[in-house]
Amino acid sequence: MAEPRLALAGCGTVGAVHAERLVADGAQIVAICDPDAEALSRMARALPQRPQLFRSEQDLLAAGCADAIVLCTPHARHADQIAAALEAGVHVLCEKPFVTNHALGQALVQKAREKNLALFVSYTRRARGHARFLQAAVGKIGPVRFVSILRSQPWLQTHGRTWRMHESEGGGFLRDAGASMLDLTLSLIPEPLSVASAQLYKAGTAEVDVCASVQLRFRSDARAELTLLGDATETLERIQVFGENGTAGWHQREGMPAELYVRESGCSIEVPDPATYRIPTPDKAFVAALRSGRRFDSETAPDLYDAVTALPTIALVERLYREGLWR
Question: Residue limits of the Gfo/Idh/MocA-like oxidoreductase N-terminal domain (predicted)?
């Protein structure tokens, strides 16, 4: 495929981020859709070339104007939209989580394989330099014995009047921002889980969790603890990795220089530049895969953003919601 024709479903804040990345990569966005006429018009004005406008993804897919679609819609709608796109022969890049049910995710991955279509999931954190560095650091300090993660942000303040507050739309902080932290944890300790537990906290009139405390134990007896605060007043992220042969960490807060390091046992501290570890974003990788004309019907060595790689996190989030203790 020389130059794929892209469509974008969902013209809100997240959709705008994807559009900016795609345009920066020289991608051609030929169609956009959103039930909100104002959001649709705003996105159309922001693009370098005016796209076709649709009020629903069904109409967009029926028009046959796109080779691929980027889904930036409420979580609970993803599964039906992915299925419709695959049935129409359209490649998919979906915002995370691409589904809220593991079994359904498996079925969609299989359907994409059968139709030789790309089904990618936008876990942007996988591309970030600090995450890539910490994964590499495990090779120096491992095996990992303990991972501690604190993630806070004013999520409730930002999204308190949006679909993210509604269970029927697949809302919830653990399923949203928390999933990225769980995905990173599973990459740092790539072992089967033996124990997973969580305390989930609501706030005010929210139908969904706003904060969560998660405890994980793996087959090797390695452990992880995650504190996820969606009602904080500032965005802060702190990750500490403790291995048998050293430690590594990342600390970032608003308005302050970020800190990233690794210290092997008996060695001096190493402070790298995270920029040197960055890799292409999901948007860039998705477009590059389509431009290459490669096949997508094999599970051998899947792409970093292939939906099959997101299934373990989907299963874990589903388990934590099912078995977690609600406060």
Answer: 5-123
